[in-house]
Each structure stands twice: as C-alpha cells, then as structure tokens.
Write a structure and sequence with these properties.
Length: 403
RNA sequence: GUGGGAUUAGCUCAGUUGGUUAGAGCACUGGUUUGUGGUGCCGGGGGUCGCGGGUUCGAAUCCCGUAUCCCACCCCA
C-alpha cells in the first residue's frame, strides 16, 4: 500500500469540517479588519527565503524542501508565508505606489522536520500582512485580530510580548550581548557557542537551564531600547490594556525568523503539548527593502491551523435538509425524481433501496436530516408523501404537488 | 539530527509462561412475518497481528532490521 509521506496528512471528514470552519471564521474576521485575500505560489526561488527568513535560522538552514528544477533553478517549497507576500508586494510595485496594503492568506507550508504532535512537514497557516503603516496602533490591531479569532474559536491562550528594537538600538545591544556571552563562553552549551556567531540574540531563547541561569545577568534588550522603540512598546502595552487584551512580557522572546524588529509576539496554549505556539508575529520594517523594494513599514502574523484545530470548540451542528426514501422498490424512481427537484433549493439525500420505515428513520437520523420523507404503499396510491420533522417529532402527509 | 515508547478488524483496545480455526465494544450490513429514529432482540461480513528477516516442532507473543505514529530534545505555527 502506498502511504502518504512522513509528516504529511490528508484532511477529510471531521477534520475538514473543523478546517473549513476555522478558515471561514478567520476570513470573516480578517475582512472585518479591512484585509484582502492574496494567494502566492507554493514554490519559490530559494534565494527569497535565504534573504528574508535568514540563513542562520533553522527554517532555512536545515528544514527547507529545496531542489533544482528542470530549468536549473534553485527552488524550494515555501516554509512560511510572509516572504512570498512581500515578494508579490514588491513585484507588483506596490511599494512604489505607496499607501496602505493589507492582505491575508492561508495555505500549506513545508518544513523538513521530525514530526510530532502539532508539528508536521506539510502544515497550514493562516496569516496576515500589513504594508505601509508605521503606527504602533497597527501592531496592536494585529494582536487584537489574533485575540479576536481565538476568542471566536473558543480558544484560551497566553500572549507573550517583547520588543526586538530597530536598527538604531539592536546592533548596539547585539554587541553588548556578544561581549557578555564571550565572558561566559566556557560554560555555555554547544548550541549557544554556535548561536554566538550565527545569531547571538537566540541564546536568550536557549532551553538549557544552566545557560538560562548565566543569561539572567546578561544585558536585557528591553532595557537597551532607543527612545522611539521604548515609546512604541509602552504605547503598545497601553493600547492592549485599554482594549482588554491581557499579555505578559517575555524579554527572552526571540522570533525564529530574522526579519522581525520592534514588536514581537507569540500566542501560546498550554493544552496541546510541547508545540505550544499557536500564533506568532511582529513588525518587519526592513524586509521590503531586503527584497529590493522601497523601504516600507510592515507588520504581520501567522497562525498554525493544525494546532488550532486541536483546540477549536465547534458549534453544535443543527439538523438540516431532507432525507427521502421508498418503502417499496417500485417507488424508488419517484424518490430519485423528487430528490432531484428538491435539490434546486434544499440539501437532500435519498436512499436507492426500499426499506421499512424504521430503517429510513434511522438513516435520516444518521445523516442529520431535519425531515425524513417516505413514500410507501399508501402514499404511492394517494399521490402523497409522508414527512416527519425529526426535531419537532411532528409528522404530516402532504400532496406531492405541495412538496 | 539525538534519545525513549507504541504499532492486532474501519475506530478504541484485549490477547494469560511462545501451543489448535486471533477476540470484545463501537461502526457497517441483513433479519426482526401489521409503517415510527437517535436508546430493543437475533444474525452476518471484515484481520497474511505495520513491513522484512531470524530463533523454534510451533511466533501476535522472543531477537534483529526497517517504516510510521506518539513523547522529550532541537526548532517553530
């Protein structure tokens, strides 16, 4: 038997119900916030992700589905959504057009990782990107949009917040951190040794407890922010508080993609195991110019749909539509005809086999129909149909022409 | 990529120190001789016990390899 590849799942039946339920709900919310749908290719030039997500990140460094295509192009399946949207934004010259552009997307992402619960090789994200707004109100709005979606899904969460600084304060901070790391270099773990040169900020996120104890004395970015960043971060906290969004400051929150600056946030759930991040995002004011566009402020987020699906509280499904069946085989033709006619306006399922009433009621119940309609000996003779409302438990016999 | 656990019917799982035709519940399906469901009764189909080797008179059971899932690390959505 041929099986799906490791970490790549089919979505069907109840999973699909949950999946579309979420997409529809999130789409509605994004549209209410004034965002428009964008779809970008699954396959992109590898350089796009190297330049945006960053070669030092694990995503690009070791998790990409990368290959040379028949035209000798170095390509890869997208590991995340932002880079493609920014590429499209620049390619359409919207950076030069100016103004505000707001997009949302959803689709498959690919990362060659060891699968785990909530971590797949092909997974789905719902994401949002906003271009052209440098106001911190937009950062707050992004966070509130995520909170809005999660609330509508009945999902509890913790919101972690940090500021990563900008080109004025981050480089200085990075230098002071490296200096500190060098002072304790002998004691830190192998991973941190590597991080020191590739991306020193990441040491803060190290899970090693000994490293963490060392970094407690390390300079904190939050204390090194420049005036503008400091002001924005303070304002962000005020806006969220004013709008009833609770948060906690996590000075070690470092997003795994290199393009973030200033606002960084992560929504986590304590109920889905160790892969606990259900949404994450932040500001990335430099990314558009990294991808050859005119400098454009931008902010966005992405949500992991598979992880959310574990948590979504689905509304109770209501009975809907009709079930039509025959009790004698010579009434089946009539049943099929009635079904076809009724389908012009209603959801209708029918049975092609004659069965007794009990079986039909059972079957109607199973497909969650609101009405069970049956044609038996009496109905056939009288030109009527027996209709039972499975919810109200009421029944009536009506003329076929009135059905 | 590293370490640990699991894999038996469509699903959830039993299977006693290796010993005849591998079981249950649910699901599916048929009947229940007068036309009332989601909660009656009786029956039926469905498994080369993940896959490949090995040990043995004999393997679902023991050993080795391999695949997948789960857990932790790593990382992230």
């Amino acid at each position: 038997m041929i099986k799906s590849l490791r970490g790549m799942n089919d979505i069907l039946s109840e999973d699909y119900e949950r999946f579309t339920y979420f997409i529809n709900l999130a789409t509605k919310v994004a549209q209410n916030y004034g965002f428009h749908f964008i779809e970008t290719p699954l396959l992109e030039e590898t350089a796009l992700f190297k330049r945006s997500v960053g070669e030092s990140s694990d995503i690009v460094g070791k998790e990409m589905y990368q290959f040379i295509d028949k035209g000798e192009n170095d390509v890869c399946l997208r590991p995340e959504g932002t880079a493609g949207v920014v590429r499209a934004f620049v390619q359409k010259k919207l950076d030069k057009a100016g103004g505000i552009h707001r997009y949302f997307y959803h689709g498959s992402m690919f990362r060659y990782e060891r699968p785990q619960k909530g971590r797949l090789r092909q997974f789905h994200q719902f994401g949002v990107e906003s271009f052209g707004v440098d106001s911190v109100y937009e950062d707050a709005t992004m966070i509130m949009m995520v909170a809005d979606i999660l609330k509508k899904c009945g999902i509890g969460y913790r919101l972690q917040l940090n500021s990563l600084g900008d080109q004025n304060c981050m480089p200085q901070y990075r230098d002071s951190l490296v200096t500190y790391i060098e002072s304790v270099e002998d004691e830190i773990c192998e991973d941190c040794q590597r991080r020191k040169t590739t991306n020193p900020i990441r040491v803060l996120d190290c899970k090693n407890t000994h490293c963490q104890s060392l970094y407690e004395k390390a300079p904190k970015l939050i204390n090194s922010l420049c005036g503008a960043c400091e002001e924005d971060f303070t304002k962000l906290k005020t806006i969220l508080t004013d709008n009833g969004v609770e948060f906690e400051i996590d000075t070690n929150l470092v997003r795994g993609l290199d393009y973030y600056s200033k606002t960084a946030f992560e929504f986590v759930s304590d109920n889905i195991g160790s892969q606990s991040a259900i949404a994450g995002g932040g500001r990335y004011d430099r990314l558009v110019e990294f991808l050859d566009g005119r400098p454009t402020p931008a902010v966005g987020f992405a949500m992991g749909i598979e992880r959310l699906m574990e948590l979504i509280v689905m509304p109770k499904v209501k009975r809907e539509g009709y079930y039509i069946g025959a009790m004698d085989s010579d009434a089946v033709d009539l049943v099929v005809k009635l079904t076809q006619d009724k389908r012009a306006t209603e959801k209708v399922v029918c049975d092609y086999k004659a069965k007794n009433l009990k079986k039909h009621l059972n079957a109607a119940d199973k497909v969650n129909a609101k009405y069970c309609c049956v044609i038996g000996e009496n109905e056939k003779k009288d030109g009527t149909i027996w209709v039972k409302d499975l919810e109200a438990k009421s029944e009536e016999v009506i003329l076929l022409k009135d059905f």
